[in-house]
Amino acid sequence: MTGIIIKGIGGFYYVKTADGVFQAKGRGKFKKDRFILAVGDIVELQVRDDGDSVIESVHPRKNSFIRPPVSNVDRFITVVTASKPAPDFGIIDRFLVTAEKAGAGAVICINKIDEADEGILSQLKEVYEPLYPVVTVSGRTGQGIEKLEKYMEGCSVAFAGPSGVGKSTIINRLVPEAAMETGRISQKTDRGRHTTRHVELFEAFGGMVFDTPGFTSFDIPDMDERELSEYYPEIFKASYGCRFDDCMHLEEPGCRVREEVEEGTISPLRYRSYRAGVEELRKRKKY
What was the pLDDT predicted at 277? Predict the structure, then answer.
């Protein structure tokens, strides 16, 4: 029978089918081929006469993420705050690059709007509103949640973002049956404690909602450094005006991207993230 993996814990996978949820193990071939089953995988399940269930095969994936292990994501909602923890624009951009590369729609969700620093909030909106949908919410009070729901209807949605930004609080409000554990911000570091210990998938708004563990950092997906600009929409668009077709937008003459950074059309923060990403990919190639 066909089903979808909604949770994986301790080598067991929980597969939701038309006949209910089955606890199953993957066939040995997955381990042999080093294929990692992921929450969100559409699978073929065999229920044996002895009651044991085995995942026989996996349908082709729309996309997949390694950390955390999820697949078939339609929309990637990056949660940040304009208070504590303060937003790290470099990390936000890594999430967005990951979403772009996987072909998943990206949304920025600014949580804790009820305690936002207006200066930080304005900066976040200035940088990201020209590029992606930006929704402001309070997971604690429910403010703005209905706007976020509109981006979730009929989609498989993954929530991600640094620890302490309130992903679990938002999901508890959106999907009460999730009943995720929430944690307080560490006073010493201003960072949130990791409260979600596994990935789980819940039905909501005619689609599915992933809850994923919090991150304090996120690696840029493996790619050639020349590919990176394709996942910065504003840089990619401006690149058509560059003098050279192979312009990397670093030091080359006649670079339209750098001109737009100087003119303020492209955010210097985004451009800085792009340059840091190119450097990181080059270092990876060396080693």
Answer: 95
HSE of 38 in the Cβ direction (CA atoms, 13 Å)?
24
**19 secondary structure, DSSP code:** T
Q: What is the DSSP letter of 225?
A: G
Please, which pLDDT band fits residue 168 given cuts at 50, 70 and 90? confident
CB neighbours of 36 closer than 8 A, spacing ≥ 6? 30, 66, 69
Answer yes or no: are the C-beta atoms of 97 and 65 closer than 8 Å: no
One DSSP character per residue, 76-92 reads EEEEEESSSSPP-HHHH
User: What are residue 65's DSSP bridge partners?
Assistant: 70
Q: Is the dihedral of CA 57, 60, 61, 65 positive or negative?
A: positive
Give the torsion sign (CA, 162, 166, 172, 173): negative
Determine the Cα–Cα distance for residues 12 and 23; give it in Å rounded to an integer.
6
Q: Which carries the bigger pLDDT value, residue 9 or residue 215?
A: 9
| 245: Cα separation from own chain's centroid | 31
Reported confidence tier of residue 218, pLDDT bands at 50, 70, 90: low
Burial of 126 (0-12, 13-18, 19+ CB in 10 A): exposed
Q: Which residue has the tokens 């991207």?
A: 257
Cα separation, 41 vs 62, whole angstroms: 10
Whether this model's pTM surpasses 0.90: no
- What is the distance between the alpha carbons of residues 24 and 29, in angstroms, rounded to a whole number? 15
pLDDT at 69: 81
Q: Are 15 and 5 in contact (CB under 8 A)?
A: yes
Cβ atoms of 223 and 281 within 8 Å: the answer is yes
Give rounded-to-5 percent helix, strand, coil for the chain. Answer: 30, 25, 40
* Strands 200-204 and 207-211, bridge-based pairing: antiparallel
pLDDT tens for 61-111 read 999 887 778 899 999 999 999 988 889 999 999 989 989 999 999 999 999
